[in-house]
Amino acid sequence: MDQSISATADRARVQVKHPMLAMVSMLVGAFVGMFSETSLNIALPSLTASLHIATATASWLVTGYMLVIGIVLPFSSLISKWFTTRQIIIFGLCDFIVGAIISATAGIFPVLFLGRMIQGIATGLILPLMFTVAMQVFKPSKLGAAMGMCALVIMFAPAIGPTLTGLVLAKLNWHWIFWLFIPFLAIALIFAITSLENVGKITRQKVDMPAVLESVVGFAALVSGVSLASSRGWGSPIVLGLLAVGIIVLALYARREVRSKAPVLNLRIFAIPEFRTGATLVMLDFGIILSAMYLLPMYIQKGLLLPVALTGIIMLPGGVINALVSAFAGRLYDRFGAKMPTRIGFIIALIGAIMLAMTSSTSSVAYVIAAHVILMIGCPLAMSPAQTHALSALSGMQSADGSTIMNTMQQIVGAIATALATSLLGIGTAAASGKSAAFAFTNGVHYGIYFTVVLIVVALIVSLGIKNPAKSKDNH
C-alpha cells in the first residue's frame, strides 16, 4: 500500500511519452536566446566601427533586446492560456530564425536593431515555458535534475557567450554571430514539430487591457531608465523621469493584479514563503552573474591589456565549470533539498568575488582564471536548488505564473545590475585619474565588483531563511 501511494505521489503532473525529448526544443531555443543576451557585449567595438555608430547607440542592441524580453515575459502565462505549448514554441523558434536572418544580413543599424527586437520576442516566449513544461512533465523525484538542466541554460549561455563570440570575431566578422544561431534554431524547430506535446490548459481567459498596458509601460520605462543611467548618469532628468514612471506604473499594475480575479500575472503567490525566498535568491544570483560577466571581459582587455580572442579563451574554463556545476546542482537538490547547496554556493561565490576585487593591472592570468572558476562554482550551485525550491512550493496552475515572474524579474534585475556595475566602473575609473589607464580601469572594475560582493552577502543572508527538508505539497 505504501509503495502504491509513493508511486502515485511520484507521478508527473502531465504524462508525456518522452519528457526529455519534449524539452529539447525549449532548451536549445532558450540557450540561443540567453547566449544572444551577452554575446554582443564583446562585439560592440566591431559593431561601432562597421556601422559607423557611437558606443551608446550600439549598446541599445543589448539593452533593447533585454527590454523586449522584459515586456513579453509577463504575458507568457496569459498567452499559454490562449495557445498550445506547441503553437507558442514553434512560433517562437520561427520568429527567432527570421530575426537572426534579418540581423545577419543587416548593413545599417536600424535593420540590425529590428532583427534584435524580433529575437527578443522569441526569447520572451520560450524562456518561461521551458521551466513551466519541466515542472509539469517530470516526476517529483526527477525534478531537481530537470531544473538543473534549465538552470544550465540560464547560467552557462551568458557565461560562454563572450568566449564563443571572441573566437568568432578573431576569424570572422560580426554577421557570423547571427548566422551561427540558425542551425541550432533549425534543430530545435525539428524537435518541437516531432516531439513536443501540449501540456497547458486552454481557457481563453478575458484579457485585462489596462493591466496589459500598465505592464508594457512600467517594465519598458524601468529597463530603459536603468539602461540609460550608465551613459547619461543617475541624475539625468530623462533617467529620473523614466524610473519614476516605471516604479509608479508598476506599483499600480501590482495593485491591480493582486485584486483581480483573473490576473495577467498572479502576484499573490509571493505570499507563499518558500516561493518568495527562492525567487529572491534566483534574482540576486542572476544579478551576481551578469554584473561579473559584464566587468570581467572588459577588465581582461582594458586592465590586463590582452586581446579579444585571448579574453574569450581566459573565460572558457569558468564557462565549462559553470555548465558542469549547473547539471550537478540539480541532483544535489533531489538528495539534500535547497538549504545546504544554496548556502555553500553563495559562500564559494563570495570567495571568488573577493579574489576578483583583489586583482591588479599586473595580476597573472592564472589568478584571474582561478577567481572566475571559483565564482562559477558558487553561483550555479545556488541557482538550481533555489529555483526548484521556489517552484516546488506552487501548484500546477501557479507554476506557470511563478516561472514567468522569476524570468521577468531576472531580466529587470540583470539590467539594473549591469547599469549599476557600469556606473560604479565609471566612478572608480575617475577616482584613479592621473594614474595609468590600465590602473585606473582596474580600480573602476574593483568598484563594480564591490557591488557584486554586496549582492552575494545579501543572497547569503536571504538563504538563511530556507527550511529543510522540502516536503511536497498535497496539491502536487
Provide key terms for this protein.
single chain; 476 residues; Growth Hormone, Chain: A; globular; disordered C terminus
Account of the protein in words:
- There is one protein chain.
- With 476 residues, this protein is mainly alpha-helical.
- It has two domains: 10-207 and 264-463, Growth Hormone, Chain: A, CATH 1.20.1250.20; 208-263.
- 79% of the residues lie in helices and 0% in strands.
Fold topology:
Blueprint: H1 2-9, H2 19-39, H3 44-51, H4 55-58, H5 60-72, H6 76-79, H7 85-105, H8 109-137, H9 143-171, H10 175-179, H11 181-195, H12 209-232, H13 237-259, H14 273-303, H15 308-336, H16 339-357, H17 365-392, H18 396-431, H19 437-463
Helix pairs in contact: 2-7, 2-8, 2-9, 2-11, 5-8, 5-12, 5-18, 7-8, 7-11, 8-9, 8-18, 9-14, 9-15, 9-17, 12-13, 12-18, 14-17, 14-18, 14-19, 15-17, 16-17, 16-19, 18-19
In summary, what is this structure?
This protein is mainly alpha-helical. It is built from 19 helices and no strands. It folds into two domains: 398 residues, MFS general substrate transporter like domains (Growth Hormone, Chain: A, Up-down Bundle); 56 residues.
Give the beta-strand count: 0
- The rounded Rg comes to 21 Å
Number of helices: 19
CATH class of the largest domain: Mainly Alpha
How many domains would you count in the coordinates?
2
